[in-house]
Structure formats: C-alpha cells, structure tokens
Design brief:
Layout lengths: L13 H13 L5 E2 L5 E4 L3 E5 L6 H4 L10 E2 L4 H14 L6 E5 L11 H12 L5 E5 L7 H11 L3 E9 L3 H6 L7 H13 L3 E8 L6 H17 L4 E6 L2 E2 L3 H7 L8 H10 L8 E3 L13 E2 L8 H14 L3 H4 L5 H9 L6 H17 L1 H18 L2 H8 L10
Parallel strand pairs: 1-4, 3-5, 5-6, 6-7, 7-8, 8-9, 9-11
Antiparallel strand pairs: 2-3, 10-12
Helix pairs in contact: 1-14, 1-15, 3-4, 4-5, 5-7, 8-10, 14-15
The structure holds iron/sulfur cluster.
Length: 400
Amino acid sequence: MSEASWSGMELGTEASRFLRKLTFAARKGRRKFSPPQYWFEEGKDFASIWFPSAGCAWDLTGHCFACNYGHPSRPHPDAMVEAVALGLAALQSVPSALWIGSFNFLDQREVPLSVRRRILALVAATECDVLFSESHPTTVTREAVADCIAYLRGKRFVIQLGVETTNDFVRKWGFGKGFGTVEVRRAVADATSAGASCCFNIMVGMPLLSEAEAIHEAIVSVGEAFEMGAESVTLFPCRIKENTLLYALHRGGYAEPTSLLALATVISAIDPSLWPRINLAWVTPKVHPGHPAALEPPVPHRDPTAVRSALAHFEATGDGTALIALLGDPTYQEWLQRTTSTISLPDRMLAALADISDSLLGGDWWRDYGRSVEAELRCEWTASTSARMTAGLPQIPTYR
Ligand code: SF4
C-alpha cells in the first residue's frame, strides 16, 4: 500500500456504520475553536509540543467513543511548522526526548507531507535523541516511516499507536475503533523494518466494561503488546469527556468512570522487570488545546493522597512497589464488588446501544438496524473473547 494511495477509513459493516452514526451524533454541538499559535509542556527529560491541524480525521468521521480533542479550524500549513519552531524556541533547553504531534502525524489528511518533513528537519537540528509522535496504526506504512527516519538524520523515532486494547472485540464495541490485531501487527512490522520503534497506548477503563473486566483487559493487553513487539507501553486512565458517546452512555446510566486504583492494580500485576518500559499518561488532567470538560477517575480508597503519590512516584521512577500495598484497602474492595455485574458483557452492550440509539438518533434507527447490530456483536463475542475476559487476574511474563 503506498502512502499516497492509502484511503484511511474501513468501509465497514452495517453495525460499524451504526456505531459511527451514534458517535457522530454524540459529538453534535461542539463548537469549532481556533488553536493557539503554539502550545508546549516542559518536563525534566521530556517536552511536548502540540501543533495545530484541522483535527483528527477519525474523530470527524464518527470513530472513537471516548476521545474528544475538539474540532479545530484548519490552519495554514506554514502555521503548523511555525508552531513547532516557536515551541522549540520557548523551551528552556531541549530535552533528550521530545513529543511532537497533532493527532495522526503520518496521516497526510492531517499533516501534509511537506509540513511533516519541515517539522522533522526542525527536530533534526536540535540536540534531542528521540522523537515521539502518535499515529493511527492504519497510517503507519514502511514508506512513511522510512521518510521520517531519513529527515530525522540519526534521531530515534518512536511511534505511539492508539491501540487502546489488544482485544479486537472490546476495541470495536467498547471504543469504536474498527482495526484489528492483524493491522496492529502489520504496523509494528512496517515501523520496525523502517527503523522506528512502537509504543502502545493502552487504556485502563475501556468503555462499557466493569472495573474488574477493564483490569483484566489492560493486564492481558500489556503482555500482548510486548509480545507483538512494542518497545514500551503507555497506560492511561479513561476520562469521561463531554460530547462523546461515552459521555452519553454515562448520562444514560450505562458507563461509570473506572478508578485510579484499577491503574494501580494493572501496574502491580506487571512483572517489575518490565516497569521501566511502562509510562503513564493522563493520571492528572491535561489541559490541551480544545480540551472538553471531563470526569476525573475516582479514587475509592481510605487514603486517596497515598494512591496519587504512589502513582506519581511510579511515573517519576518506574518503581511500583508502593502501589502494591495499597490494593487490599477495604474501600477499594467494596468498590470492586459494587462495580461488578452479573449481566454478560454482550447483553450490557446491546442494552446500552439500544437505549442510546433511541435518545441520540430516534426510535427508528434501532428498529431498523438493531437486529443486524446484535447479530454482528454476538458473532464477534467468541468463546476465546469470553474466556479471556472472565479468567483470573493474569501475571504478565517477562519479555527481554
Ligand atoms: S483516539 Fe486517536 S484516532 Fe480516535 S479520535 Fe482520538 S485522536 Fe483520533
């Protein structure tokens, strides 16, 4: 597949089109905003520079139940490059690791090739060692990555992939992302053969899952991410953001926020030898251009401050020992019991979709499409998916 001929969106089934229609309807009412001239965030060894684009193409076409980076106005291509130049100039010093991106760095609908190359040339002229950027797995082609590597002139390139989970069923029915594991494996193979590395972004708290299910999912996904060739994994808690399908599901009583203790549980289940390869994101709210109002993940624990500081300690040092001691807390154990459902996940998902369809699209939609949506969901809820989601908490093996 050549970079130029890539079409981007899967055609999809009737159910996929229905999910997109719902997600699109939930985003109605968002106002376009003008991104700032430049935006950056500076840490000790890491800095992020956000440059403006016309928005994520997947967002604008009804994908991704939980994401909302807003709907920015289309900037002039020169303004995109200028934002990176201004961001770099504003840093006190250029750290060894830079994150530079908008939404999908390798997607030419969002970042024209000439813009991407000019940005990479700016990075190549800095003292940084490694550039991180994010792109949808479908946009990661050998040709595109090799082009980046050539312009980076010896800097390492790490591509963050918004995989969310390695479970195809949950990614589609819980998040509205239609690509499968086969596509993720292809993206990793193409990226690595072209000289880049991949970091998998894994969400702890996939929409519509109970807290225990979300924990299972994230733990298995971390193990599979390393098995699939990820150099590192970024774990992040789910936030329920306004103008998303997840927000509508929450208002309808079908989705609750997953707690920060779930994130702590996932970290504690990972072999400590892998902790240096685990990053955290969004543990504290991130104020980015176009950010919507969002619900904070709750901290159901007798000592919420201890949980937050143990997570901050892990983020700073890669040592999660303090988190393990916090998990036996009775407040959290009660929370886990309370958030567990006896209704099967497919039944819960179908009930939620039917109800939300009526409120967002009107009654005719579920009447017309409900049967084929149900058939597709139940067909994709295979025995292996079911077994994976109900097994005991797995331990992640060591990958070196
Ligand atoms: S999750 Fe990624 S692909 Fe989906 S809307 Fe958000 S930025 Fe776009």
